[in-house]
Write a structure and sequence with these properties.
heterodimer, A: 251 residues, alpha/beta, 10 helices, B: 433 residues, ten-stranded mixed sheet, nine-stranded mixed sheet, 9 helices, globular
C-alpha cells in the first residue's frame, strides 16, 4: 500500500538533511510501528508524507497504491486515502467541530466523485462514531480542539479518522500527553478501525502504546534511516535496554 | 507661520465651499440644535488630511461639494430574513413610507425626522444633536456637526418597554450620485430594551449620525452589516451615553465600499454600565479601492463599568485598514474593566493595516488592556485543514471565519449572529475563484 524508497529529505530553508535514505513498505491490512530517539526523523517523515511545507525531497519516492504522493497537494493526499493524526492537533476557534468534519468529508467525497453527505446523514454517522470514543455532543459542538484536554484532542483525531475512513493512517506520537485510560480509549478507537484494507504507521517513542495497538512490524529509526526492523519483540527490547545497544550495533 | 496661515485659509475656504453647496433646513424643534451645530461646524472647519485622526484616511471624499459617482448595488441580498422585524426603508436617504412597515410597536415610539421636525415640541428636543455636541472629544468631528445642522431625514425612536421585535433600518441606494445625510436619534428609557438592525448602502456618499441615549438599566443592541455596494463612500458617527447599569452592544460588518469611516464615541456616565463595540471587516482591493477606518473613543466616567472593543480586519489585494481606538478612564472611575483588541489578517503583501491603540488612565484601581496584531494566515492551521482533505481556498475561508469569530461573538442573539456568518461565508464563496 505505502511504499517509501530511498527517501532523502532536507529542510527547505537550510542545507540540513533529515531523512537520509528511508526504505519502508507497508502492506494492506498491516500495522507498522516506527520507534526511535528524538531527532531521528520520525515526525519529519509523517510531515513529508502528508505534504507539509518546509521540507525538500532531494531523492527517492513515496507512493500510495502506486500513486506518487510527493507530487500531490496535502488535500489530494487526503483524498487519495492518507491520514495523519497530529502530535499536536491544531485549535481552530470559531469553527465548529461538526462543520469542520463535514467540510472535510464532503471535500474528500467530491474529490473522489461521490455525492456529498447530507446534514442529517452526517449527524447520524458522527454520533455513532463518537459514541465509542466517548466523545459527547457538547464536544462535537465546540470549536475545533478549542479548550480540549490533551486526551480529548487525541480522541478527536481518531474520530476524524473514523469518519474520513482513510486507507493509510499515520499516527504521529498519538500517545504523547495521554494518561493510561486515555491511551486505552485511543488505542481501542484505532483497533476498531483495523481492517484488511487499511494500514497503520504508528510513530512512537515508547513501547507502551504498542501494548494496546499490536504492531505486525517494528522499525527502529535513527539519524534519518531505518536501522533495523523486526517483530513486536523489537519494541520490548527497546523498552528494556533503550536505543543505545541498537545504535551501537549498526555503528 | 506662513504655512500655518495658508492651512487655515485653505480650511476656511473649503468649509465655505462645502456650505455654499448646501441648503440647510430651518427645523422646528431642532432649530436651536441645528443653529448651534452649524456654528460648531463653521468654527471647527472641514477635516483635513493633516489633522491627527485623518492622517491615515483622506477626508476629501466627504468634503467635496458633490460626491463622485458610485454604482448602486441593485440586488442587495436580504439579511436577517428569518426574523420578524419592523422595517424602515430609506432609499437614497429618503424615507420610503410605502415599502416600510407600519411603525407601530408596543413600547416603542417611532417618528420620521422630516415630519416630526414640523412641530416645535417633541420628546426628542433635548436629545437631537446633544450627544454629538458633547462628542467632540478628544478631537473635533466637524462632519458630525454638519450632519446635525443639515439632516432632513432620519428616525426618532423612543423606547419605553421591551421591544418584542427588532427595528430594522434598511438602506437602499438607487442613484449613482445620491448624497445622503441621515440623523437618527434614539432614547431608551429606564429598563427599556431594543435591538436595532441597520443594513444596506445609504447612498453613493453618505453621512450618517446616530445618537443613542441609554437610561438606567436599559439595553441596546445594534447590528450593522454595511451593504454590498462597492464604490460608495460612507461616514458614520455613533454617539452614545450610558446611565447606571445600562448596556450597549454594537457590531458592524463591512465587506465592501471604497471608503468607510466608522466613528464611535461612547460616554459611560453611570455606575455598572457595559459597552461593547465590535467590527468585522473583509476588504478585497480587487473589487476597487477599499479603505476602512474604525475610530473609537470610550470614556469611563463612572465606577465599576466594563468596556470592550473588538475589531478584526481581513485585507487582501491592496485593501487598507485603520484602527484608532482610545480608552479614557477619568479620575474616580474606579473598578473600570477596559479591553481593546484590534487585529488584522493580511492575505497578501499588498494590503496594509495601521493601528493606533491608546489608553489614558486617571484612576488607580482599574484593569485596562489593549493589544494590536497584524499577521498572515497561520500555516500550521492551514496545513491541518488541508491534511483533512479541505482544499486550500476552502481552508483559507474557514480560517477567515475563525479569525473574525471573536468580533461576531459580540452579537448576543445567536440567530442574528448566524445570519452575519452566513453573509460573510457567501462573500468568501464568491471570491474563491
Amino acid at each position: 500500500m505505502l511504499n517509501i524508497n530511498n527517501l532523502h529529505v532536507k529542510l527547505e530553508e537550510e542545507d540540513k538533511p533529515i531523512l537520509k535514505g528511508v526504505n519502508l513498505s507497508v502492506e494492506a491490512g498491516s500495522v507498522h510501528a516506527i520507534m526511535g530517539p528524538n531527532g531521528s526523523g520520525k515526525s519529519t517523515m509523517s510531515y513529508v508524507l502528508s505534504g507539509r511545507d518546509g521540507y525538500a525531497v532531494t531523492e527517492g519516492t513515496a507512493t500510495l497504491d502506486g500513486a506518487d504522493l510527493l507530487a500531490m497537494e496535502p488535500e489530494e493526499r487526503a483524498a487519495a486515502g492518507l491520514f495523519l493524526a497530529f502530535q499536536y492537533p491544531v485549535e481552530i476557534p470559531g469553527v465548529g467541530n461538526m462543520t469542520f468534519l463535514r467540510t472535510a468529508l464532503n471535500a474528500q467525497r467530491k474529490a473522489r466523485g461521490k455525492p456529498e453527505v447530507s446534514a442529517g446523514e452526517f449527524l447520524k454517522l458522527v454520533r455513532e462514531k463518537a459514541k465509542s470514543l466517548q466523545i459527547d455532543a457538547e464536544m462535537l459542538k465546540r470549536p475545533v480542539n478549542v479548550g480540549f484536554s490533551g486526551g480529548e484532542k487525541k480522541r478527536n483525531e481518531i474520530l476524524q479518522m473514523a469518519v474520513l475512513e482513510p486507507r493509510m493512517c499515520v499516527l504521529d506520537e498519538t500517545d504523547s500527553g495521554l494518561d493510561v485510560d486515555a491511551m486505552r480509549l485511543v488505542a481501542d478507537g484505532v483497533n476498531a478501525l483495523r481492517d484488511a484494507g487499511r494500514s497503520f504507521l504508528v510513530i512512537t517513542h515508547y513501547q507502551r502504546l504498542l501494548d494496546h495497538i499490536r504492531p505486525d512490524v517494528v522499525h527502529i529509526m535513527a539519524d534519518g534511516r531505518i536501522i533495523t526492523s523486526g517483530g513486536p519483540e523489537l519494541a520490548l527490547e527497546v523498552e528494556k535496554n533503550g536505543y543505545a545497544d541498537l545504535l551501537a550495533e549498526v555503528a | 507661520m506662513a504655512a500655518g496661515q495658508s492651512n487655515l485659509a485653505a480650511r476656511a475656504q473649503t468649509t465655505d465651499a462645502r456650505l455654499a453647496g448646501m441648503t440647510l433646513p430651518r427645523g422646528a424643534f431642532t432649530r436651536n440644535a441645528r443653529r448651534e451645530a452649524l456654528q460648531r461646524f463653521t468654527k471647527m472647519g472641514v477635516p483635513m488630511r493633516r489633522d491627527e485622526y485623518w492622517r491615515w484616511s483622506d477626508p476629501a471624499a466627504f468634503v467635496t461639494v458633490s460626491p463622485g459617482a458610485a454604482a448602486a448595488f441593485r440586488v442587495d441580498m436580504p439579511i436577517f430574513s428569518d426574523r420578524e422585524k419592523l422595517r424602515l426603508i430609506f432609499t437614497d436617504g429618503v424615507f420610503d413610507a410605502e415599502n416600510s412597515d407600519d411603525p407601530t410597536l408596543a413600547g416603542v415610539e417611532i417618528a420620521r425626522l422630516s415630519e416630526a421636525d414640523e412641530a416645535d415640541i417633541h420628546w426628542a428636543k433635548p436629545y437631537y444633536g446633544a450627544l454629538e455636541a458633547a462628542g467632540h472629544v478628544p478631537v473635533a468631528r466637524p462632519l458630525a456637526a454638519l450632519n446635525t445642522a443639515a439632516a432632513r431625514e432620519g428616525v426618532l425612536i423612543r423606547v419605553t418597554g421591551k421591544a418584542d421585535r427588532p427595528v430594522h433600518i434598511s438602506y437602499r441606494q438607487a442613484s449613482e450620485t445620491s448624497d445622503v445625510t441621515l440623523h437618527h436619534c434614539i432614547r431608551l428609557e429606564e429598563g427599556a430594551e431594543l435591538t436595532l438592525l441597520e443594513t444596506g448602502t445609504p447612498g453613493a456618499r453618505a453621512n450618517v449620525v446616530m445618537e443613542v441615549d441609554v437610561a438606567e438599566n436599559a439595553r441596546f443592541h445594534h447590528i450593522r452589516p454595511q451593504g454590498r455596494a462597492l464604490e460608495r463612500s460612507l461616514l458614520t458617527h455613533l454617539f452614545t451615553r450610558l446611565a447606571g447599569g445600562a448596556l450597549f452592544k454594537s457590531f458592524t460588518l463591512t465587506a465592501n465600499g471604497r471608503l468607510t469611516r466608522n466613528e464611535a464615541v461612547i460616554d459611560i456616565a453611570g455606575d455598572g454600565a457595559t459597552a461593547h463595540i465590535a467590527g468585522a471587516t473583509l476588504g478585497d482591493g480587487a473589487d476597487g479601492d477599499f479603505h476602512h477606518d474604525d475610530m473609537v473613543f470610550i470614556t469611563h466616567d463612572a465606577v465599576g463599568c466594563e468596556s470592550r472593543q473588538v475589531f478584526k480586519k481581513v485585507l487582501k489585494n491592496g485593501a487598507q485598514g485603520v484602527f484608532q481606538g482610545k480608552i479614557l478612564v477619568k479620575p474616580g472611575a474606579q473598578k473600570t474593566d477596559g479591553y481593546q483588541i484590534s487585529q488584522a489578517l493580511l492575505l497578501d503583501d499588498d494590503s496594509q493595516f495601521l493601528a493606533k491603540p491608546e489608553l489614558e488612565i486617571y484612576a488607580d484601581d482599574v484593569i485596562c488592556s489593549h493589544g494590536s496584531t497584524t499577521g498572515a494566515i497561520d500555516e500550521t492551521a492551514l496545513f491541518y485543514l488541508r491534511s483533512r482533505g479541505i482544499p486550500r481556498e476552502d481552508a483559507t475561508a474557514l480560517l477567515i471565519v475563525s479569525f473574525l469569530a471573536d468580533a461576531i461573538a459580540e452579537i448576543e442573539d445567536e440567530v442574528l449572529a448566524a445570519d452575519v456568518v452566513a453573509r460573510l461565508e457567501s462573500w468568501l464563496a464568491r471570491r474563491k475563484k
